[in-house]
Amino acid sequence: VSYYQFEYFLTELRDNGVLWVELNRPDRRNAITPEMHDELAPLFERIAADREVSVVVLTGAGDKAFCVGADFAGMQSNLDAGYEDGHPHLMLGSARIVRAQLAIPQPIIAAVNGDAIGLGATMALFCDIVLLADHARIADPHVKAGIVAGDGGAILWPLLLGLHRGKEYLLTGDIMTAAQALEFG
pLDDT by residue (tens digit) across 80-111? Predict the structure, then answer.
């Protein structure tokens, strides 16, 4: 039984107030659907208000991905439904998600157990401590879809990597390995 009752996120309160939060769509590499997107800010807000939680570990279900960002199948269905830009409220929701995550007073550890792409990368990088498995990769390839990183990545990558290297990864959408991330600090 999940500690919090969210449909797409498994939560388990362990000893000493350690809350494990697992994105739970391993069949789709934990890709974020609009429904999951809608649960993220309330999840983070609930954590922030929970005095039983001392620390949070955020991870993805399965061993292939932490979170590969938006589910492109969902984007196509939004386009087919007549949303020319995919679904505009998702951009506003992304800002709420980032604000809610940053408002969590407890330390958050990202246990990046596989690919962290787009919003997945942003959620991981906004954590206080980021631990990457040896096979994990991280990227923000919004540019390859012809859009800018609207979920905080446009600011976050240059802050963490330095202005030029951060812009290089944002402008190319290249994937960074765990070894490269370690090398870059």
Answer: 776 565 555 555 677 888 899 999 999 999 99
* Both tokens assigned to 48: 């922030």
Please give the Cα distance from 151 to 95 (Å, whole number): 6
Q: Which DSSP state fits 32?
A: B
Question: Which pLDDT value is given to residue 171?
Answer: 95
- How many other C-beta atoms are found inside a 10 Å radius of the C-beta of residue 71? 20
| Helix/strand/coil for 12 | strand
Report how far residue 180's alpha carbon sits from residue 169's, in angstroms, rounded to the nearest whole number.
12
Among left, alpha and beta (phi > 0; psi -120 to 50; other), residue 86 is: left
Residue 63: per-residue pLDDT? 87
Q: Which two tokens stand for residue 168?
A: 């290089």
pLDDT at position 149:
79
Tell me the DSSP string of 109-153: EEEE-SEEETHHHHHHHTSSEEEE-TT-EEE-GGGGGT---TTTH
Does residue 6 contact residue 35 with C-beta atoms inside 8 Å? no
pTM score of the predicted model: 0.90
Q: How many residues does the chain have?
A: 185
